[in-house]
Design goal:
This protein has 13 helices and eight strands. With 288 residues, the chain is an alpha/beta fold. The chain has a single domain (4-285), classed as TIM Barrel (Alpha-Beta Barrel), CATH 3.20.20.100. The protein starts with 10 loop residues before the first strand and ends in a 22-residue tail after the last helix.
Length: 288
Amino acid sequence: MVRKEDIFPIGIGTWNIDCENIEKEIPSLMYSFSHGQNYLSLYMLYNHGEVVKKVKKFIDQVGREHLFITVNLEPTIEDIQDVFEQLNKYLEILDIHYVDSLQLHSPMFSKIPLVDVYTEIQRLVSMGIVRYIGISNVNLEQLITVHSVVPIDFFEGVYNLECKIYEDNGVLDYCKKNGIRFICYQVLRRGRTAKRNYPLLLELSKKYNKTQNQIIINWVWKEKNIYPLIKSTNVERICENIQSFDFEMSREDYKKLNQFRSSEFDGVSIDWEGNGGITIDQLANQFD
């Protein structure tokens, strides 16, 4: 089993994996693993469950015990039994006996109270089929409500140079104070942040002889202590991402990145209640 303390700083994302050509994707996943990446995040929503089915081949080749596997409860939790049934579907498809972390993908995916969902997840931990408890895409109030009843180990949310809402609303600080590991998705906005060529990123990229993406990843990990979840099946890009950790920036440069703000993203109002507005998981996709 992979201990929580031994998780590699960059997680393996699985969004948009080419299921029809999975044989071409697996070597890249194996390359990621061979260079230390051992955190794997799976979503049944991706391609109607086909991603989970196809990635099983990668898990089998690596060996289940060498991966930290996180899975998500997704639409829709209508009754408490749905929690176990959804988890069991992952277990059956992957032919494994436990998952390392289980989380509700979004509070809007549950028609029953969040605390009830997490009390049930805690029961599954006691059964030995879940090791850790994660939570995703909630606001500070929701996080505090759940964590006061069921101790949370992992928080997954959007965080990048432009989208700092989880810092602004106190979630990041709360996680640090309570020993909750923050996993972020869309750390590079799928390459869109670098394409904007912000003067600060261009300056630091030239100064440290690194790509803009490497500057971002380095800052997120070394300065913010956040674990980025990145999907890539391009070996050169995977190598580039991993090499983001082999340099240090000055205190002043980290401070500049901390202070960077995007008026566009800061101006987006998040719909936390599911009333048809922009939800937190869509924040990073609002602008090119």
